[in-house]
Amino acid sequence: MGLSDMLGTPKKNVPHTYESNGHEVVCSQCGGRTFVKGEALLNTAGMTFLDLDFLNRSADILVCEECSHVEWFVNHVRQTDL
Known about the structure:
The chain is an alpha+beta fold.
């Protein structure tokens, strides 16, 4: 039992289905349809050299619940099973 279970707080990283540009996201490895969403910073050498990493773009990442393959999306994805 985790701390969130004991406190009754909502759990993060719960799998959901997603779409990108009107298309359902399907895992390219196993065909899974449920993912845990995260975000990754798209670092560039110039911004890192200037210590301005926070100004770089970010991407949504979806980790497949079935096989843990990571799918990357520069255009943000939308959760479909609200």
